[in-house]
Design a protein that fits this description.
The chain is mostly helical. It contains 27 helices and twelve strands. The longest helix is centred in the N-terminal third of the chain and has 22 residues. It comes from Actinomadura bangladeshensis.
């Protein structure tokens, strides 16, 4: 037992004796005559062995403790409970929290008073004191007051420990926006003082911990992907590292002690370390980068919100930014390797669509499933036709065509390319009408489209693949009326003339081709005679004949009537190269025609509701107006949906994701399902509205 006149701090792990009780663990002030840190009264944590203790009737409930207990002022019964709790190793939680506070008072005094004058003891004891406070938090953390004071004290201990260490030697502290780690502040200041660039992990921890920045949903829902993308893009933008200016006031930390032995706020300074935590310019740069990364993960994040089990799937990989996709690993690697093996060393290769669709894992693959596969293949330098991203249909059988591409970007199809596919569609219908595709017909189609239209090299390659797919499948003329309804008569006649040249390119005009041309003429709103005159022009020889040319020698067949030839013998039918060149030279006019067909203006659609529509389920203005405009029907054609989305100036597929994400959060169900037609979940819609 200590002499009555002495005051001693028993260090961590050092036992002491009070009366006939041994108090293990140390970290106590025992003795007499120790003044409080404020200079007034006795130190509340001081255990004075002279004071009476009623060992037989301890006050475990702490009824006699008061709000700011002091060992000198609590009752003998309370002293008995406190000392017995200490003697048991401070392990029991079924005592009044005031006894844990009384012990904490002594730790506060040790750190804020004694250790400020003893560097050696500070380095040795701070980690042990912090460990003990964290242990007590595990016992008494359910009490809000104790949790608040003990947590703040731990932060102070962390700051004091960090000031004595090389903080950059380890990883940054965990993100905590409510109470940013002192070690983070000290570390940033140390990097600035030393002129060292901030490691990307510290930069990310800084921006996410700063109260002035609000992380987006994707950053919180997908922290691993977000951190990886942030690191990659940070490295690209700050090749030499991000440096902070070593300016600003000296870094200090404020702490309001729980002990009544202090008055006011205690401050702990970190000598020589500037406070750079709020430097505006680097924070703005990091916040901008963080927002950009979160935006890049939006689609992936929405999928994870709907179906977290999709993580690691091909569908999920297709939604990740390109930097995060490893084309040589996992399911993605297996899929890419399979596609490359099917393409082999050829420029393009036909593959059964069923083999491709099997990779979706869906019983009835839709547009989204095929787009996901096409996106992954595109990143590997492989194109696929038909591609829904380029206005192609979802394969329902037959082959698809793989081909090599150079441009792996995911830019939308150009207006010119979309125009070319329409003309190719019509031309393929003519070429396939007789069941045989002549080389001359194919060459005329591609020659015109590649030379006459301003296509990129990748678009030319894609167009060849598109033609190969068209010629290997059943080409239908349905669904084209909307695409040409605004074309004037003269432009339609030009288009009919070109298609007539395609039919005659091989020197023979089959009745089936003529019937197809007549169908196209009907689609174009032209009389069949327009096609017949186009056929005559296409089959003229280089030297103008003195009389009409026989389109096809032999007996006339039903369904095909041309003016009868004169009695003079007719020349053999052949296609003049100069005439074909003249057809190709009409590119500007045909391009203008196709531009009319494929104008950028969307088809007429109902005007959007007024802009003051109240928000629906947290959606922004355009999407709130869109969901209110959904028809009062269970089904909606895909084309009608795309028109409605265009009228509200949102992307069709992205809008479905946005509406469904809001629906999941509001009702637990999607509001739109299916591909074509779309299925409207009326129950979810009504609940949202």
């Amino acid at each position: 037992m200590q002499p009555p006149s002495a005051v001693r701090w028993t260090g961590p792990g050092e036992p002491c004796r009070v009366g006939d009780r041994v108090l293990p663990g140390g970290m106590l002030y025992v003795g007499t005559g120790l003044t409080a840190a404020s200079g007034q009264g006795v130190e509340p944590a001081l255990i004075d062995p002279r004071l009476p203790v009623e060992w037989g009737s301890p006050d475990w409930t702490g009824r006699d403790l008061g709000y700011w207990p002091s060992y000198a002022e609590i009752s003998p019964r309370a002293r008995a409970a406190y000392l017995r709790w200490l003697a048991a190793g401070r392990r029991h939680r079924d005592v009044a929290v005031g006894y844990a506070f009384l012990f904490l008072y002594g730790l506060e005094r040790r750190v804020l008073v004694d250790l400020q004058r003893d560097d050696g003891a500070r380095a040795a004891e701070l980690p042990l004191i912090r460990a003990e406070v964290e242990r007590l938090l595990g016992l008494f953390g359910s009490d809000g007051s104790f949790r608040s004071y003990a947590t703040e004290f731990c932060a102070l201990l962390e700051a004091s420990s960090a000031a004595d260490a090389d903080v950059w030697a380890g990883p940054p502290p965990e993100v905590d926006r409510a109470s940013p780690s002192p070690r983070l502040r000290i570390g940033l200041g140390e990097f600035a003082r030393a002129g060292r660039p901030i490691p990307v992990e510290w930069a990310l921890s800084w921006v996410l911990s700063h109260p002035g920045y609000s992380p987006r949903t994707a950053a919180k829902r997908c922290p691993e992907e977000f951190a990886a993308l942030f690191a990659l893009r940070h490295e690209d933008r700050h090749l030499g590292g991000l440096h902070l200016r070593p300016t600003g006031p000296q870094l200090t930390f404020s702490y309001r002690p729980a002990s009544g032995g202090f008055r006011g706020v205690a401050e702990v300074a970190v000598p020589g370390v500037p406070d750079v935590f709020d430097q505006a310019l680097p924070l703005r740069r990091l916040a901008s980068l963080a927002d950009e990364c979160a935006e890049g993960l939006d689609a992936f994040s929405r999928l994870m919100g709907r179906d977290p089990q999709q993580r690691g799937s091909l569908a999920a990989a297709a939604l990740l930014p390109e930097e995060l996709v490893d084309l040589g690993a996992g399911d993605v690697g297996a899929f890419v390797e399979w596609a490359r093996s099917r393409l082999g060393g050829f420029a393009m290769s036909a593959v059964p669509s069923a083999d491709l669709l099997a990779w979706t894992g869906a019983e009835q693959p839709g547009k989204k499933d095929v787009v996901a596969l096409a996106r992954i293949l595109g990143r590997a330098g492989i194109g696929v036709e038909p591609d829904p991203r380029f206005d192609g249909p979802v394969p329902k059988g037959g082959p698809v065509v793989f081909f090599h591409i150079e441009d792996v970007s995911e830019a939308a199809p150009s207006r010119t390319y979309r125009a070319a596919t329409l003309l190719l569609h019509l031309g393929a219908a003519v070429s396939l009408a007789d069941g045989v595709v002549a080389v001359e017909e194919k060459q005329l189609l591609l020659g015109h489209l590649e030379k006459a239209l301003d296509l990129t090299s990748d678009e030319r390659v894609r167009l060849r693949a598109h033609l190969r797919w068209l010629l290997s499948t059943e080409v239908k003329l349905t669904g084209l009326s909307r695409r040409i309804e605004d074309v004037d008569r003269s432009q339609r006649e030009q288009l009919a003339g070109f298609l007539s040249a395609v039919a005659a390119a091989d020197g023979h005009v089959n009745p089936a081709e003529v019937r197809t041309l007549h169908r196209i003429a009907k689609l174009l709103g032209l009389a069949p005679e327009t096609v017949d005159s186009g056929l005559r022009a296409a089959t003229e020889t280089a030297e103008p004949a003195s009389a009409p040319v026989v389109v096809r020698p032999g007996r006339p067949e039903p369904g095909h009537a041309l003016p009868p030839p004169p009695e003079a013998p007719a020349p053999a039918v052949k296609l003049d190269a100069a005439l074909l060149a003249a057809r190709i030279a009409e590119a500007a006019e045909v391009s203008a025609l196709l531009g009319s067909v494929f104008g950028d203006e969307p088809p007429a659609a109902p005007p959007p509701p007024p802009p003051d529509v109240p928000p629906v389920a947290g959606l922004d203005g355009p999407h709130s107006r869109l969901i209110r405009a959904l028809p009062d029907q269970p089904l909606m054609e895909r084309a009608a949906w795309e028109d409605l989305a265009a009228a509200h100036r949102v992307m069709p597929d992205g809008a479905i994701d946005r509406l469904n994400e809001a629906a999941y959060e509001a009702t637990g169900e999607p509001v739109i399902e299916g591909d074509d037609p779309l299925e409207i979940n009326r129950d979810a819609l009504e609940a949202m509205l």
